[in-house]
Amino acid sequence: MFWVNVKRVWRAGLINFWRNGFVSVASILVMSITLFVVGSLVFNNALLQSSLDDLKNKVDINVYFITTASEEDILTFKKTIESFPEVALVGYVSRDEALVQFKARHEDDQLILQALDEVGENPLNASLNIKAKDPSQYGSVADFLKQNPLMSQEGTPLIDKVNYSQNKAAIDRLNDIISSSRKSNLARTLVLILASLAVAFNTIRLAIYVTREEISVMRLVGASKTYIRGPFIVVGLIYGLVSALLAIIAFYPITYWFGPLFYPLPVFLTKDVVSELHLFQYYISNFVQIALIIVGCGLALGATSSFLAVRRYLKV
Amino acid sequence: MIYFDKVTKKYADETRALDGVTFTIEPKEFVSIVGHSGAGKTTILKMILAEETPSTGSVFFESVNIHDLAPRLLNGYRRKIGTVFQDFRLLPHKTTFENVAFAMEVAGHTDEEIESDVPHVLELVDLGHKLWNFPHELSSGEKQRVAIARAIVNQPDVLIADEPTGNLDPISTFEIVQIFKKINDLGTTVILTTHNKGVIDFLKRRVITMDAGKIIRDDKHGHYIL
């Protein structure tokens, strides 16, 4: 009998969905918008994360060594720094490479190149470029450099300068931006999700409100609460599934045509930040996860809304 | 079969819908309950359906206090009672066949039983030719006959009808009353509330007359006296 009832509940749900055409279409439209908002928040988070990652990659510390420091000492020091858990990457630029890069950078500036020739020998320092795993960790790396300066065998310091202090203000500001962006994004996400859920829930509740008389008749005929609730939950699941499919389909052209407009985020709009992320590519490469999130939210929203809305009218 | 023991129903505003009502209905009886609007007729039917609970007193069905029934048992109890309402209360998105079949589904009948019994019952109320019509495609008399078919399809012990002819023309009223008589002749207890003097005088069965929540007359072969 259990499977017979399951079959009847599903059949009744499908028939109700079909016969309540107008209400079904209206509910699906509202739920599609809700799920579109949920999906947009996934993209919004991806964009924000990508923007923050781009910015983080721009931040580093450069340690400049005096011109007499030996390459062997610098490479040993590099290995020490690489062993720190906070450090993601350490790049070494030798004096010769620094000179080549300097000349390439100023190839159009004859005055500087002429001055360089007049100096005769290479005046540039070798350097280490340090990237931390998180911008907030540069402070501890800088502290280490300050407390354990690289010394020659004669006891003279081999480090000429560390540019952390010059970059500190920018790094601190970046940390603040990242932190506040994450918090405000979380708050925005929660508010939007709650507002969308409330709208979708009320739409389904309204759809069920018009059937409250039917529910009381079913109760008086002797139907159990589960048997009455079943078809409504099936209808809710169908609303959720169809709405999710519509939202998923809608994202395809929208991310393709309008994706470039959304990046970089206006708050990070600077010449240096060049996006690696294209929304359309992000959508295609993460299609399964995004589709699962939207379909999952749709099914949960449809079923939960129906369950709660019917419960109110079952108290006969 | 049904026993009301000093039943009082008082609402929050102190209105008394029923005031110390006591009566018994025997199996296979045909009982009409009459009275002005607000006399308490519908409240009695709601008590029997366990839609309302008494403020004091008890309602027994076959010696069981129905307001003590657990929710699961209440569903089974309600399946023993067929109900017909003045406003028909059909499920608007279900066809004639589906409206009647629904009552059989909830009673746990198989698809085969439903396929064979529903057309048969609809034939009994002369609606065999409208199996696949929706309620909005039926006349008031036809809707009421669908409601009766739904009420009797599970062969209930009791059929209760709340002003079943209130929205019907005289010809449909007569047809519906004939159907009730036939159902009662087949052994089902029928409890009917009505304002229709013609119906009561035609039936010549037991009449309980109510006023302001109290029973003021209970006549075995009564007439409509108000």
What topology does this entry show?
The complex is a heterodimer of chains A (316) and B (226).
Chain A: H1 2-19, H2 21-58, E1 61-65, H3 71-82, E2 87-93, H4 95-105, H5 110-119, E3 127-132, H6 138-147, E4 159-162, H7 164-209, H8 212-221, H9 225-258, H10 279-285, H11 287-313
Antiparallel strand pairs in A: 1-3, 1-4, 2-3
Helix pairs in contact in A: 1-9, 2-7, 2-9, 2-11, 7-11, 9-10, 9-11
Chain B: E1 2-10, E2 16-25, E3 30-35, H1 41-48, E4 56-61, E5 64-65, H2 71-78, E6 81-85, H3 96-106, H4 111-124, H5 140-152, E7 158-162, H6 170-185, E8 189-194, H7 197-203, E9 206-211, E10 214-219
Parallel strand pairs in B: 3-8, 3-9, 6-7, 7-8
Antiparallel strand pairs in B: 1-2, 1-4, 4-5, 9-10
Helix pairs in contact in B: 3-4, 3-5, 4-5, 5-6
Describe this structure in a few short sentences.
Chain A has eleven helices and four strands.
Keywords:
heterodimer; A: 316 residues; alpha+beta; Alpha-Beta Plaits; 11 helices; elongated; B: 226 residues; alpha/beta; Rossmann fold; 6-stranded mixed β-sheet; 4-stranded antiparallel β-sheet; 7 helices; 10 strands; ABC3_permease_C (chain A); cell cycle (chain A); cell division (chain A); Cell division protein FtsX (chain A); transmembrane helix (chain A)
Report on this model:
The complex is a heterodimer of chains A (316) and B (226). Chain A has 316 residues and is an alpha+beta fold. Chain A has helices spanning 2-19, 21-58, 71-82, 95-105, 110-119, 138-147, 164-209, 212-221, 225-258, 279-285, 287-313, and strands spanning 61-65, 87-93, 127-132, 159-162. Chain A folds into two domains: 2-56 and 174-313, no CATH class; 67-157, Alpha-Beta Plaits (2-Layer Sandwich). Chain A contains eleven helices and four strands, in the order H-H-E-H-E-H-H-E-H-E-H-H-H-H-H. In chain A, strands 2-3-1-4 form a four-stranded antiparallel beta sheet. The longest helix of chain A has 46 residues, at 164-209. The two termini of chain A are 25 Å apart. Mean pLDDT of chain A is 83; it is low at 266-271. By secondary structure, chain B is an alpha/beta fold. Chain B contains seven helices and ten strands. Chain B has helices at 41-48, 71-78, 96-106, 111-124, 140-152, 170-185, 197-203; strands spanning 2-10, 16-25, 30-35, 56-61, 64-65, 81-85, 158-162, 189-194, 206-211, 214-219. Chain B has a six-stranded mixed beta sheet, with helices on both faces. Chain B has a four-stranded antiparallel beta sheet with strand order 2-1-4-5, with helices on one face. In chain B, helix 3 (96-106) crosses helix 4, helix 4 crosses helix 5 and helix 5 (140-152) packs parallel to helix 6 (170-185). Chain B starts with a strand and ends in a 7-residue tail after the last strand.
